[in-house]
């Protein structure tokens, strides 16, 4: 199969399209025929070696943390079937024709491949933040950067759980479709909150 790989840390110029073996799923894993791979900021940070602690790359690596696609093979104990449409976290890189995964969910039919592939990393960050905060239904939650990838997902998750959420007042018309109910200005000269 074809995959994008890098064999040294660096800028986009280190990326190559190469032929590699199709991976075999292990216990609890599925192999996904990738329809879309998320291009997340963390991908370039890994490629640039920002998480390497100064150590050289051990071997060629395929980027891509998030994917959407069709289950093509299943490992022992995997709770999916061949043909399932899924999205989730890639094991070993999603910038490839096939990728392994163990943390996936069924893709709703109304969700496009591209949209589904953009959700896992930012969605996990949003969900983790909400869980760490332990916000209870009825409490007001102020979300900085609510128009961004993590913020917009945190807002929708919070509203889906019955929590009011907040954002910049000057973006209120943009935010209403996401379910934001109260808005507050967090930069610029004005401050405070408004309905
Ligand atoms: N994306 C991910 O998958 C992910 C995963 C884990 C952690 N994170 C981290 O989460 C944070 C947000 O990432 P993101 O991907 O959501 O970023 P993003 O999509 O670029 O959104 C950034 C948000 O911050 C707002 N903002 C920028 N400068 C600001 C300022 N000076 N004052 C107030 N608001 C400001 C932006 O508002 P405007 O739209 O008005 O500019 C926007 O709402 C980053 O620290 C990132 O490293 C991201």
Task: Describe the structure in brief.
This protein has 195 residues and is an alpha+beta fold. Helix content is 22%, strand content 28%.
List key phrases describing it:
globular, alpha+beta, Quinone Oxidoreductase, Chain A, domain 1, 28% strand, Rossmann fold, 195 residues, binds NADP nicotinamide-adenine-dinucleotide phosphate, two-stranded antiparallel sheet, disordered C terminus
What is the name of the CATH architecture of the largest domain? Alpha-Beta Complex
Averaging pLDDT over every residue, what do you get?
87
CATH topology group of the largest domain: Quinone Oxidoreductase, Chain A, domain 1
- Principal-axes geometry comes out as globular
Radius of gyration over all CA atoms, rounded = 19 Å
Beta-strand portion reads 25-35%
The helicity comes to: 10-25%
The distinct ligands, each listed once, are: NADP nicotinamide-adenine-dinucleotide phosphate
List low-pLDDT spans: 172-176, 183-195
Q: Describe the sheet with the most strands.
A: 4 strands, antiparallel, barrel
End-to-end CA span: 53 Å
How is the largest sheet built, in terms of strand order? Answer: 3-4-5-6
Give the helix tally: 5
- Order of H and E elements: EEEHEEEHHEHEHEE
State the secondary-structure class.
alpha+beta
Number of strands: 10
């Amino acid at each position: 199969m074809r995959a994008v790989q890098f064999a040294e840390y660096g800028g986009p110029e280190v990326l190559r399209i190469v032929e590699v073996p199709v991976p075999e799923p292990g216990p609890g894993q599925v192999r996904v025929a990738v329809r879309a791979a998320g291009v997340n900021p963390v991908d370039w940070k890994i490629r640039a070696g920002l998480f390497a602690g100064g150590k050289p790359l051990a071997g060629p690596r395929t980027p891509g943390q998030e994917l959407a696609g069709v289950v093509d093979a299943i490992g022992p104990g995997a709770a999916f079937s061949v043909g399932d449409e899924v999205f989730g976290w890639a094991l070993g890189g999603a910038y490839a024709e096939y990728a392994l995964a163990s943390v996936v969910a069924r893709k709703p039919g109304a969700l496009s491949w591209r949209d589904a592939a953009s959700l896992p990393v930012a969605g996990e960050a949003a969900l983790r933040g909400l869980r760490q905060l332990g916000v209870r239904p009825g409490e007001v939650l102020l979300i900085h950067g609510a128009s961004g990838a993590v913020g917009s997902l945190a807002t929708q998750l919070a509203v889906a759980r019955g929590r009011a959420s907040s954002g910049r007042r000057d973006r209120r018309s943009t935010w209403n479709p996401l379910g934001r109910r109260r808005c507050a200005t967090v930069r610029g000269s004005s401050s405070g909150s408004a309905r």
